[in-house]
Amino acid sequence: LVVVGGQDGGRGGGPVGVVADAWVLSPLGGARRTWSRLDWRGTFPLQRCRHSVVVVGELAVVYGGYDGARTLDAHHSLFCAPLAGGGGGGVAASGAAAHGAGGGGGEEARLEVRRRQQERWAAEQPLTEADLPADERARAAKSSLPLAMAKALHRLAVRSQPPRDTYIDPDTGYSVFTQAYLKRRPCCGNGCRHCPWGHVNVPGRRRSEAEPEEEDGLDW
């Protein structure tokens, strides 16, 4: 697991709240996993959030984002950095240990993990507008209420058995967490559309604790 930059609300808003460091957690799934800081400071433009990161072999590729004042889409918007060199051996050594766990069947173990991930993804495809019953889809399409189609999708998701974790927002194409998913964890503070905890951890947006978002009485 590689974490680059991000935001710390406790430090304040704007650029001061954007973190400028990089960390690796490894080996994933191991009882002795640890965080190691990557020695990227002073070499790569780390101060950013809302960016994309992809790991290719022993390299991390970081693209775009926001530095607290402007969108990073031109100079220094893209960089590639090595994953070795963190305290405790970095990802190269810990990754090899993780792949070799379980009696040396490294390649076979990786293929099995990938197969399970693919099966899990196939089983958890988000609901889309096409999954709505024809009458509900037609009713939502005729509605003048804001987000009528999204609301219809969410109602279908939470009443499904088992309840579904996500649906695709018809207006944006983004995947949206349902209340069924969000109830399994505390409020993340990101202002999720279907937060069942009243946005208690969202600065400035906390609703009364006496008015939690109840699933049964909610039009969502």
Question: Any key phrases for this structure?
Answer:
220 residues; 3-stranded antiparallel β-sheet; 5 helices; globular; disordered C terminus
Describe the SSE topology.
Blueprint: E1 2-4, E2 22-26, E3 34-37, E4 52-56, E5 59-63, E6 78-82, H1 90-100, H2 106-123, H3 134-142, H4 148-159, E7 166-168, E8 175-177, H5 179-182
Antiparallel strand pairs: 1-2, 2-3, 4-5, 5-6, 7-8
Helix pairs in contact: 3-4
Task: State the gist of this model.
It contains five helices and eight strands. The chain is an alpha+beta fold.
Summarize the structure in words.
- This protein is α+β, with helices and mostly antiparallel strands and 220 residues long.
- 25% of the residues lie in helices and 15% in strands.
- It contains 5 helices and 8 strands, in the order ββββββααααββα.
- The strands form 3 sheets. A 3-stranded antiparallel beta sheet has the order 1-2-3, covered by helices on one side.
- Strand 7 (166-168) and strand 8 form a beta hairpin.
- Mean pLDDT is 77; it is low at 86-104 and 209-220.
